[in-house]
Write a structure and sequence with these properties.
Layout: H1 2-12, H2 16-45, H3 48-64, H4 66-75, H5 78-101, H6 107-131, H7 141-166, H8 171-190, H9 206-209, H10 211-217, H11 220-236, H12 242-249, H13 254-277, H14 284-304, H15 308-335, H16 342-371, H17 373-394, H18 396-399
Helix pairs in contact: 2-3, 2-6, 2-7, 2-8, 3-6, 3-16, 4-6, 4-16, 5-6, 5-8, 6-16, 7-13, 7-15, 10-16, 11-14, 11-15, 11-16, 11-17, 12-13, 13-15, 14-15, 14-17, 16-17
């Protein structure tokens, strides 16, 4: 416990607190935005497929820009890259607010804005992920990742709940508050001063652009961890269908949707605080597989539930299990990647995450349209369990992984 306190005190003496504030505000704004866009487009179309199209509209630009994002993050000042992209997000959010107040938004307009949001956020996550290790000592990184995740989860918890509550006053109100929070995030990030880079910038060649993919392919444990997360969330995610569950199955309104979206983050926040105090030390590979299996089981319970409290509890367990997977994966990626390649590797990692989240939303919308909402979620949970068993055989090195490389506390 004394060592944990010393490490956390050390983090306070760096630019890390400003970074966490900026990241928390960014996630707060984005998750408020997600609730508003999801509920608004469902009101406009009354279609589960349209909810999936929102995810697809965000995923396509993220996928297309993956290699560009990584190269930009490794060649330019990462803090400025994030600030520029957040400024773009602020402008688009303002346009959504104006369109909502004037009642001129159409499904096509919302999807177009979602596409631009996806393009801007394609740069934000991997660039911030690559920026974080330069703000702390290597031995502090596992706990810094957990504390950073705690800040993200605060945004993910408060964002949906606040977005659902503000939606009572109309979507324009939600978008306006989102724009204000994004401005605060930019201001906090402006005060972050990271150390100058010591590595030389590689020239823009095909080899350097593809460096992140090449590096991940050469590390089976990293590839296994990233791809396990990809397929488990891609198949088992039910986020896109929460408006359907909230209104048609559980009988709640926007406030209920906000609570449902916040529930996974509540579980994730609790788990991230535990991991910040007590870093995983033994059997990290087995723990990761067990966590993903629990994620699948919780998804099945949520799909079958007709009780609002039980649904919230299942989503909270789902979020806690996912957080264990996130911390193990992020620690492996960041601790074993040279700083000169962190942008490209983080971009590929973000592409996998975007695939599992946004493309997973599209997959959920399509399967719900084909089989029904409940069968789609239950089948996704079962598929996640199948992926866990298969990945244990495909990536035995990940299963046998005992320690995080720099866990020397």
């Amino acid at each position: 416990m004394e060592h944990s306190t010393q490490y956390i005190q050390g983090l306070r003496e760096t630019a890390f607190p400003r970074f966490v504030c900026a990241q928390t505000a960014d996630y707060l704004a984005y998750n408020m935005l997600t609730v508003a866009v999801g509920w608004q487009i469902y009101e406009l179309t009354n279609s589960a497929l349209s909810l999936g199209l929102v995810g697809l509209a965000q995923f396509l630009p993220q996928f297309a820009l993956t290699l560009v994002v990584g190269h930009v993050a490794d060649r330019f000042e990462r803090r400025r890259v994030v600030m520029v992209c957040q400024a773009v997000l602020l402008v688009v959010t303002g346009l959504l607010a104006a369109g909502s107040f004037t009642h001129s938004l159409t499904e096509a307009a919302v999807l177009a804005c979602a596409c631009v949001l996806g393009a801007a956020r394609a740069f934000v996550y991997p660039t911030m992920s690559a920026l974080l290790p330069s703000l702390v000592e290597p031995r502090q990184l596992p706990r810094a990742l957990a504390l950073s995740a705690s800040g993200r989860q605060v945004g993910i918890i408060v964002g949906p709940a606040l977005g659902g509550a503000l939606y009572i006053a109309g979507p324009g109100t939600v978008y306006s508050v989102c724009a204000l929070v994004l401005a605060l995030s930019i201001a906090a990030l402006y005060g972050v001063r990271s150390p100058a880079r010591t590595h030389e910038r590689e020239p823009a060649t095909l080899r350097s652009v593809l460096g992140g993919i090449t590096y991940i392919r050469s590390r089976p444990e990293i590839l296994g961890a990233i791809s396990l997360d990809l397929f488990s969330v891609l198949l088992g995610g039910a986020t896109a269908l929460l408006p359907v569950f909230a209104r048609d199955i559980l009988g709640t309104g926007p406030w209920g949707l906000g609570l449902l979206r916040a529930a996974p983050a509540v579980g994730a926040l609790c788990m991230s605080l535990v991991l910040a105090r007590s870093t995983l030390r033994r059997g990290v590979g087995r723990i990761m597989f067990a966590a993903v299996a629990l994620f699948g089981l919780a998804t099945i319970v949520f799909g079958l539930s007709r009780s609002f409290p039980l649904s919230l509890a299942a989503l909270a367990v789902l979020g806690a299990a996912d957080m264990v997977s996130v911390v193990v994966r992020q620690s492996l990626v960041q601790l074993e990647t040279p700083d000169g390649m962190r942008g490209r590797v983080s971009a590929v990692n973000a592409m996998f995450i975007g695939t599992s989240n946004q493309l997973g939303e599209f997959e959920s919308g399509v399967t719900a349209a084909w089989f029904g909402t409940v069968p789609a979620v239950v089948l996704g949970g079962v598929a996640t369990l199948v992926v866990v068993v298969l990945w244990m055989r495909l990536f035995p090195a990940l299963l046998k992984r005992e320690r995080l490389k720099a866990d020397v506390a």
